[in-house]
Write a sequence for this structure.
């Protein structure tokens, strides 16, 4: 069974601090997606990483896919209150239309 | 703005009512999904339609009945729901199988409350 474990589960930081969220598995994924979800809304796609070792940047957010394609990280530089939300990683199960989601990281950035 | 549109945004129904949730996408995606999400938890997959055919049913109770009238529309028919079915119901679509690196795109969900 493929699983995606995220850490930490909860993070409360001050505005301007940096943070890293991890998404780990013992299984290889062909790609991983990162989403941010705010209360009462659907998950919003932030990025898809496909190639092992790939690094993608989205403004203050940096995403990395592990060389072996078993893990990924999300680094936020100088966090802002607008970054508050639930961060989810997700990956497809090979040969199916099924995606599995990570356990989620709830981030709160205090002004 | 989301490219997957869900209606209604909120729904309150009694346990004997029949209602439907609707989802629409115009991105030409060939796979559409229903998820259930409880507070502070990740989404849980319920159903997947690929090329308008039901390809995955995650052992969902029969009081939930999905329907895919065409490649752009997805419905979820609800009947005789239980209070524990109260949740955020999310619709998603993807261009094809995730094996090709295609991500899912989500709607804003329907907040369902069962009285």
């Amino acid at each position: 069974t493929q699983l995606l474990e995220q850490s930490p589960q909860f993070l409360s930081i001050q505005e301007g601090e940096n943070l890293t969220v991890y998404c780990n598995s013992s299984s290889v994924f062909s790609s991983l997606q990162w989403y941010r979800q705010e209360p009462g809304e659907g998950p919003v796609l932030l990025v898809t990483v496909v190639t092992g070792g790939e690094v993608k940047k989205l403004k203050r957010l940096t995403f990395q896919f592990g060389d072996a394609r078993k893990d990924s990280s999300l680094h936020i530089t100088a966090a802002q209150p607008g970054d508050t939300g639930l961060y989810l990683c997700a990956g497809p199960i090979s040969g199916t239309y099924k995606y599995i989601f990570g356990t989620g990281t709830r981030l709160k950035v205090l002004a | 703005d989301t490219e997957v549109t869900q209606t209604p945004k909120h729904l309150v129904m009694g346990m004997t009512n029949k209602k439907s949730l609707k989802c629409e996408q115009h991105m030409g995606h060939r796979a559409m999904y229903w998820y259930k999400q409880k507070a502070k938890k990740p989404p849980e997959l319920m159903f997947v339609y690929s090329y308008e055919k039901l390809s995955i049913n995650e052992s969902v109770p029969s009081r939930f009945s999905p329907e895919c009238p065409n490649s752009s529309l997805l419905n979820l028919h609800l009947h005789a729901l239980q209070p524990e079915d109260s949740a955020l119901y999310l619709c998603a679509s993807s261009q094809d199988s995730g094996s090709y690196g295609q991500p899912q795109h989500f709607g804003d969900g329907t907040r369902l409350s069962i009285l």
Summary: Chain B has a mean pLDDT of 93. The longest strand of chain B covers residues 18-25. Residues 35 and 45 of chain B are 5 Å apart (CA to CA). DSSP finds no helices and eleven strands in chain B.
